[in-house]
Each structure stands twice: as C-alpha cells, then as structure tokens.
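Following the same procedure, sequence and fold were stored together, as reproduced here:

>
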Amino acid sequence: MDKIKIGYFASQKNEEQYIGGVMITNDQSIPIEFKYTEPIKPTRVHKIIFGKVLEKYIGEEVIKKNLFKEIKNVPSIFLVTDIELLGEDPVNHIPIVAIQPTTLPSLPNPGEFQRVKDKEVIVQPITSKNPLKMTFFSPEPDVQEKAMNTLRSFIDKIDIYEPFTRIDTALKALCQTKS
C-alpha cells in the first residue's frame, strides 16, 4: 500500500492580488511538495466583465484547477478550510474535505469521530482541546467513510490543521516579494 499523503489547498486575497497554494505532506506533516500560483492581479476590465463571479472564477478556474494539474504527488485526501472549496479534485478525483476549528466540548479520545449532520463530522485532534468540524461535499456514506479511514491513520499523531498556517504564511510572503 502507498504511504498516505495529505493534500492541503488554500487560496487568499491580499490587497488586490489573488494567490493559491497546494502542499502535499506525508503522514507526519513533513512537506513533500509545494506548488503555488504567481500573484494574480485582475485588471479593471476583468473586474467589469466578471463582476460578482470574479473571485469564484479566479479561485476555481485559474488557481485550483491549475494547481491540481501541477502536483506530482497525488494525496489520499485534500483538506481545505473554506467550505466553498468542497468537492472533488477536478484532476485526480480525490475528495476535498473542509476542516474548521470549533468551540465544542472535547470528545473523550484523540482520533475519535462523531457524526453531527449527514455531511458533518467532528473529530478530536491530538493537539487541541476542542474538536475540528469536518464537512464533506458528498452525502454518500462510502465516500465519507473512505476519507475518515484515511484520517484515522494519522489524526491521533499529528496536528492536521497546523499546515494551513504554513501555507498562509508562505502565500503572504510570496505576495510581498512580488509587489
């Protein structure tokens, strides 16, 4: 069996620039690949012709699809923090699961999962007293169970949320160096 790889995807807007990054880590949270877009600054005409769908277009069509085509190390699962990014990797068909911190009371054991809604589960990470909320795009139990089984193999060993801090900091640094 292949070693588990975790994909983290994030995009952000810094002033008038949009940028995105994808980091693939091993099951110990060590990066094995990092790809990013150059900062994208839409022109005045782009803002006019795309209107309210500009951010969605840049996020989905320009950033997400291009980054997912670039990666060489296909992960077992993709994690995002933004529910708007839920779905499936458009290139490799890997599930994309949103994880977010909560203020809910802790679950008894690290790695424990608890169903909240048909597309939501909370899981107790090893590094936080509060559980994380996991939101799935698909209500299909098989799809969710596969993602949870992948997470079960390492969630009680590493901080699965912390890599987003690294990606966000790297993307901000890239925008600063390009301005």
